[in-house]
Amino acid sequence: MLRPGHTIVLCVLTLLAIGVIMVNSADMTVRSVSADAPVVQALTVGSILTSRSAIYMVLAVGAMAAAACFPVRRLAAWAETPSPNADCTPSRAAWRTWAGLGVGALALVLVCALVYLPGIERARNGSHRWISIPGTGDALSLQPSEIAKWAMVVLISWYCLRASSTKASPGSTVPTTDLSRFLTGLCPALAAVGLVSGFIVLEDLGTGALIAAVAGLLLLAGGARLRHFIALSPIPIAAVVLAIMTSDYRMARIMAFRDPYQDAEGIGYHTIQSLVAVAGGEGWGRGLGFGIQKLGYLPEDRTDFLFAVICEELGVAGAAIVIALFIALAWAGYAVMKREHSTFLRLVTLGIVATVSLQAVINLAVVTAVAPTKGIALPLLSSGGTGWVLTGFSLGLIVAIDRTQRAARKVESMVLRPVMA
Q1: What is the distance between the alpha carbons of residues 314 and 139, in angstroms, rounded to a whole number?
Q2: What average pLDDT does the segment 320-344 reach?
Q3: Rounded to an integer, what distance in angstroms lies between the CA atom of residue 115 and that of residue 132?
Q4: Which residues contact 156 (CB under 8 A, 6 or more apart)?
Q5: Distances, alpha carbon 339 to alpha carbons 2, 3, 307, 335, in Å
Q6: What's the pLDDT score for residue 130?
Q7: Which long-range contacts (CB under 8 A, 24 or more apart) does 345-350 make?
Q8: What integer best gives the mean pLDDT of the chain?
């Protein structure tokens, strides 16, 4: 019988295979053999198998396989183990939890700050989002915000677990990390999330907003009260508005979203070319490799706007397959989460599924002009080594959770049986 973990593996492999093919197709260029005989560089099986994206696919599959064998139950046992000191008071336990949360958030900020470190910084299009791996020059690069995106899922899940284990009694004045408490439970978590996502927003609004949204979902699932989020909602809204208004290119994207044809050759060019590519594919597409917009018309066709190339070359049918794969991936992850008994692993699964799903929805909305342009990739499809490898590893953790659920239930039943007897 096909388990949810098997479905995740099949969806990841299919999406990666489509990504390798479409990235190579989008990378096709027109070269001139002579002055009057321009030709399109051929796309062959050999060129695809030896491409950089094919190597990244192998690395992503390897990362997923390694994560699928990862001892997630030991990680959960460590996270769920109470303080080693038996005489640790609730107040001291709360301070240790806050310290762990703060240290984790500061570590992620330092990782993201590497994009400004001279010698390894690598700016593209005026943005500092990448670092060069020492010894490789500009051949290999790493995106620290991708590390922060997935690490925050684990960090907030751990904090929610600690909060759920320190519920305060009614009327108690002892400091605890109970998420239902505003000052001592929710505020420290929001401060950590705001620190990391706020720093990332300086260069990447889309990823910073994604991290904040997923963290908020995890906190709500962990026991935070919705009314507290509603009361604080003006603060992140004001922060996003400020981040947009203080940036010329972000303001230009908002103007292009409102009416791209007002400046069709300027700020609206990107959106218009994306819509032309999407509409040009019609039902069954122009055919693999026969797209037109990728030949110098559509910017960022290999990364943020790869879905537009898919729509043009594979049509509505190809786009529907891609969307169906993401839906199946989300459903399988939800099925694993629903059957999981460990609070920590359940929250981690929710965070991973929410990150992949929300990122895909944002990218599809941008490509189809339903949302303003953002620099956020389509998971497992858009070109990018760091994103593919870390996404593959994260989804592999869900596979490991699914793989060990049956054995975990047997252990629980063996432990509970003598107690009930």
Answers
A1: 31
A2: 95
A3: 9
A4: 189, 192, 193, 215, 218, 219, 222, 347, 351
A5: 15, 12, 33, 6
A6: 79
A7: 345/72, 345/76, 345/401, 347/156, 347/157, 347/160, 347/161, 347/218, 347/221, 347/222, 348/153, 348/154, 348/157, 348/397, 348/401, 349/398, 349/401, 350/217, 350/218, 350/221
A8: 85
Judge whether residue 213 has pLDDT over 80.
yes
183-200: average pLDDT: 92
Helix 144-164, helix 385-420: angle, nearest 10? 20
What band does 419 get if pLDDT is binned at 50, 70 and 90?
A: very low
DSSP 28: -
Can you give the pLDDT at residue 86?
A: 43
The 3-state DSSP class for residue 123 equals strand
Local structure of 40: helix, strand or coil:
strand
Helix (H) or strand (E) holding 37: strand 37-40
Q: How far apart are CA 48 and CA 23, in angstroms?
A: 9
What burial class does residue 420 get, using C-beta atoms within 10 Å of its C-beta: 0-12 exposed, 13-18 middle, 19+ buried?
A: exposed
Give the end-to-end CA distance of the chain in Å, rounded to a whole number. Answer: 34
315: left (phi over 0), alpha (psi -120 to 50) or beta: left
SS3 200: helix
> How far is the CA of 287 from the CAs of 17, 280, 314, in angstroms?
17, 11, 6
Question: How do residues 348-398 score in pLDDT, each as one tens digit?
Answer: 999 999 999 999 999 999 999 898 888 789 999 998 788 999 999 999 999
What SS3 state is found at 124?
Answer: strand
**Rounded to whole angstroms, how far apart are CA atoms 13 and 122?**
30
Q: Are 314 and 307 in contact (CB under 8 A)?
A: no
- pLDDT at position 136 is 61
pTM score, whole prediction: 0.90
| Closest residue by Cα to residue 382 from 355, 358, 364 | 364
| Residue 78 binned pLDDT confidence (cut-offs 50, 70, 90) | confident
